[in-house]
Amino acid sequence: MDWETSFELYLGHLCEALEHNDREAGLRGYCQGLMLPIRRKSVEPLAAHLEPEHVSARHQSLHHFVAKSGWSDTALLEQVRRWVLPHMDPTDGLYWIIDDTGFPKKGKHSVGVARQYCGQLGKQDNCQVAVSLSVATEDASLPVSYRLYLPREWSDDPARRQKAGVPDEIEFATKPEIATEQLREARQSGAPDGIVLADAGYGSDTQFRTDVSELGLTYVMGIGPATTVWAPGTGPLPPPEWSGRGRPAKRLRRDAEHQPVSVKALAQSLTAESWHTITWREGSADWLSSRFTRLRVRPAHRDELRTEPRAEEWLLIEWPEDEKEPTKYWLSTLPEEISFEDFVDMAKLRWRIERDYQELKQELGLGHYEGRGWRGFHHHATLCIAAYGFLITERSAFPPSGPSVSPHFAETAIPDDYKPRGSASTARTAHTQLDRNDKTEAGCRHRQGITTMSVL
After folding, report:
1. What torsion do the CA atoms of 176, 100, 137, 299 make, to the nearest 10 degrees?
2. Is 291 a domain residue?
3. What's the pTM value of the predicted model, to 2 decimals?
4. Which of 130, 264, 347, 377 could covalently link to 225 via disulfide, CB atoms 3.0 to 4.6 Å apart?
């Protein structure tokens, strides 16, 4: 079966989640537009290339579908998952990857825009940030949940919320809290069990790690170097013995000499024999390897407020030979018998989401949406993920060593006189009899500040 026929069958499957038949044309057109080899994939360029002779009408219909229509992002992403997951081989393990991605923005009116850390820029700047949950195997991965992070300056501002169409039920939530809800919804929808992978932005949050465990999921999560643990063989002191007066003490204790240590200090206290070179996967030029050690420790965060010590976990530390100090740390609830090589391989598998974001942004226009509302932001992202899901299924038909597969529709030629809205090259008409400001009439002043108008 050729890929165009497969794409039509795939879109038919997705349309089942739209509830109304009159939305099908919008989904088919938008997804087809995202598959075009064009540079910009916001609504207007998609309309211009899909239907160059009727750009205005096509633009209006696509804009309504993505920004106004009330179809469910959750339902559509569920349809995507049902189609794609059978094409992903979980033989070597199945994983849930938590991450977030930023979209630089110049203005302040797009929903969720605030000055915050933007991974794309590598610094604090004006941007939007979205949290995603992806399902992954050794060979493929797919985002299955996607939600905008709404800073407090937005969540606590009724006027901004109303203007951007933020649903009433959306309240302020930290990124780890959003991720917890995504995992909970995935579990409730019948998604398969998997190992949760996340970077230090999530793993350093003790409550998030606790919530993941309470969902019955195992994790491997990055943590910061200042995270405190009890070294192997140690733990918090038990409550003091009851004196017979008052209520018996129940909380764990520390004293001046009995304290947890940071994972960085623990790593630097280890001998050279503690470190082992582990190779985990083939990179673009050579196999990737580094020095690691692993230890059984107890997380110590605020355990003096607890009545029972936290359970032991794995602490994995990476310290490349050419670095002055350790570079990465992970905590994990993987079984004690897990092999060292498999442990490192799982910790490093989170890189796959970086590739997803790269392709979603560069190939499918994830960051190209120009609207300002909550619904349009999420609808555009959902449709980009839907198009990406089809690419994953097509690639799965080829072995890893086979040719790279990137199916796309042929680009449609647009009229030579087409100019996008707001283009500086859009000229006024040359017919003076139609130009009321062509010359100054007797007794009249020439109108100032003439604005160039769009041909659309």
Report:
1. -40
2. yes
3. 0.86
4. 264
Six-digit token string for 294: 């692993």
Radius of gyration of the chain from its Cα atoms, rounded to whole angstroms:
27
pLDDT score for 286: 72
Q: What is the pLDDT of residue 370?
A: 93
What was the pLDDT predicted at 175? 98
Q: Which domain holds residue 326?
A: 220-233+257-349
The reply to whether 342 falls in a domain is yes
Residue 390 burial by CB count (10 A; 0-12/13-18/19+): exposed, middle or buried?
buried
User: Rounded to an integer, what distance in angstroms lies between the CA atom of residue 23 and that of residue 30?
Assistant: 11
How deeply is 3 buried, as exposed, middle or buried, from its count of CB atoms within 10 A (0-12, 13-18, 19+)? middle
Tokens coding 287: 């196999």
Q: What is the pLDDT of residue 412?
A: 56
pLDDT of residue 447: 37
**What's the domain count of the chain?**
1
Distance CA 194, CA 185 (A): 14
pLDDT along the chain (456 residues), means of 10: 89 95 96 94 94 93 96 96 91 93 91 93 93 93 96 96 96 98 93 94 97 96 97 91 82 89 97 95 77 97 90 97 96 97 95 91 94 97 97 76 53 58 46 41 40 33
- Per-residue 3-state assignment (H helix, E strand, C coil) for the chain: CCHHHHHHHHHHHHHCCCCCHHHHHHHHHHHHHHCCCCCCCCHHHHHHHHCHHHHHHHHHHHHHHHHCCCCCHHHHHHHHHHHHHHHCCCCCCCEEEEEEEEEECCCCCCCCCEEEEECCCCEEEEEEEEEEEEEECCCCEEEEEEEECCCHHHHCCHHHHHHHCCCCCCCCCCHHHHHHHHHHHHHHCCCCCCEEEECHHHHCCHHHHHHHHHCCCCEEEEECCCCEEECCCCCCECCCCCCCCCCCCCCCECCCCCCCEEHHHHHHCCCHHHCEEEEEEECCCCEEEEEEEEEEEEECCCHHHCCCCCCCEEEEEECCCCCCCCCEEEEECCCCCCCHHHHHHHHHCCHHHHHHHHHHHHCCCCCCCCCCCHHHHHHHHHHHHHHHHHHHHHHCCCCCCCCCCCCCCCCCCCCCCCCCCCCCCCCCCCCHHHCCCCCCCCCCCCCCCCCCCCCC
Q: Give domain status of residue 57, yes or no.
A: no
- Decide if 359 is inside a domain: no
User: Who's near 403: CB < 8 A, 6+ residues apart?
Assistant: none
| pLDDT at 189 (0 to 100) | 87
